[in-house]
Design goal:
heterodimer; A: 97 residues; mainly alpha; B: mainly alpha; 11 helices; 79% helix
Chain lengths: 97, 220
C-alpha cells in the first residue's frame, strides 16, 4: 500500500465529509442520530488510547505511570498540552532510571 | 488572541503527528502534505497508528469516516448561517476544523472572514507543529522509538477535555474495554470500529436513561 495513496485517500474522505454538510444545508438530521454521533470522538479516541498504551506494554510500567501523570495534569489544568508535556516528562524520567 | 488556546493544542499534536508519521514510514513530504490537505489531528494520528500495524486501506478509510462522522454536522451548521458560493464552500470545507468553527461561532454572529481567519490560523499552527515534529526526528532519530507512546498519550490528552459528562465517561469506558478485547482477536481497524459502535450505543443509552431519570425526578 503506497503511503501517497493513503495520504490522498484520507484527505479526499475528510474533504467529502466536510463539504457534504455545506453542500446540502437544508438536510435535517434525526435527533437520535445527532445524539449518537456526539459520542463518536470520545469512543474512537478512548479505543485508540487504550490499544495504543496496551501496545506499549513491552516497555513495562513506564507508559502506564506516565499516562496516569498525564491524566492528573490534564484534569488539574484542563490544558491538553500540559498533559502531553507531563506524560512525556514522566516517561523520560522513568526511562532514564 | 482567541485562537491561542487552540494553537496550544494544535502545535503539540502536530509535533506528535510528525514524529508518528516518520515512525509509520511516511516521507517528510508525504507527512507535511497530509497535514496540508487533511488538517485533522485525530484522523491523521489514527491513520499513522493504523499504518504502523499494516492495516488495509479500506479499514483505515472506514475508521477515518467514522471518526469524521460529525464533520457534516459542522458543515450543516455553517451552511444554515452563511450563504456561500461554491468556491467559498470548497475553501471553507478544506480548512474546516471543529476548533476553528467553535472560536468563530463564539465571537458573535458567524461571518465568513472570521471563520476563514480562524481556519487559516489553525491550518498554520497544525502545519508548523508537523514541521517541528519532522525536524525533531531529523535532529534526534532515536526519538522515533517512542512514537507509539507519544501517539497514545496524544489521544489521551485530546480525550480528557471531552469527558465532561457521565454519558461521555461511560462511552469512553465501554469503547476502551471493547477495543482492548477486540485487539486480541481482530485487526486494529475492526477493533476501533467495533469499539466506536459500542461506545456510541452505551453513551446514547446512558444519556436517554439519565434524561428519563431527570424527568421522573422533576415529576416527584
Amino acid at each position: 500500500m503506497s503511503a501517497l495513496v493513503v495520504v490522498l485517500a484520507v484527505a479526499a474522505s475528510l474533504f467529502a465529509l466536510r463539504l457534504a454538510g455545506l453542500a446540502a444545508p437544508q438536510v435535517r438530521i434525526p435527533p437520535a442520530w445527532d445524539r449518537t454521533l456526539a459520542f463518536v470522538p470520545v469512543s474512537v479516541l478512548a479505543a485508540l488510547a487504550v490499544t495504543g498504551f496496551a501496545g506499549e506494554a513491552r516497555l513495562g510500567m513506564a507508559p502506564f505511570v506516565a499516562a496516569a501523570g498525564a491524566v492528573v495534569a490534564g484534569r488539574r489544568t484542563g490544558r491538553m498540552w500540559v498533559s502531553i508535556v507531563v506524560g512525556i516528562a514522566v516517561f523520560a524520567i522513568l526511562g532514564a532510571v | 488572541m482567541a485562537m491561542m488556546p487552540l494553537w496550544a493544542g494544535a502545535i503539540p499534536s502536530g509535533i506528535a503527528f510528525g514524529l508518528a508519521a516518520r515512525a509509520a514510514g511516511l516521507g517528510v513530504a508525504q507527512a507535511q502534505m497530509m497535514s496540508g490537505l487533511a488538517i485533522s489531528a485525530a484522523a491523521q494520528l489514527t491513520v499513522v497508528a493504523l499504518m504502523r500495524v499494516h492495516t488495509p486501506l479500506l479499514l483505515v478509510l472506514a475508521t477515518v469516516l467514522t471518526l469524521g462522522a460529525e464533520l457534516p454536522l459542522l458543515g450543516l451548521a455553517i451552511g444554515r448561517r452563511l450563504r456561500l458560493t461554491w468556491p467559498q464552500r470548497v475553501l471553507v470545507a478544506w480548512l474546516l476544523t471543529d476548533g476553528a468553527y467553535g472560536v468563530a461561532a463564539a465571537l458573535g454572529p458567524l461571518e465568513l472572514p472570521v471563520l476563514l481567519g480562524a481556519e487559516s490560523s489553525m491550518f498554520v499552527a497544525w502545519n508548523v507543529g508537523t514541521a517541528l515534529g519532522l525536524a525533531a526526528v531529523r535532529a534526534v532519530p532515536g526519538v522515533v522509538g517512542a512514537a507509539g507512546f507519544v501517539v497514545a498519550l496524544t489521544f489521551l490528552a485530546v480525550l480528557l477535555p471531552l469527558l465532561r459528562s457521565r454519558p461521555a465517561v461511560v462511552a469512553a469506558a465501554v469503547a476502551g474495554a471493547v477495543a482492548l478485547g477486540l485487539s486480541r482477536v481482530a485487526p486494529a481497524g475492526v477493533g476501533v470500529l467495533g469499539a466506536a459502535l459500542a461506545g456510541c450505543g452505551a453513551g446514547s443509552l446512558t444519556l436517554v436513561g439519565g434524561g428519563r431519570r431527570s424527568a421522573a425526578r422533576s415529576l416527584t
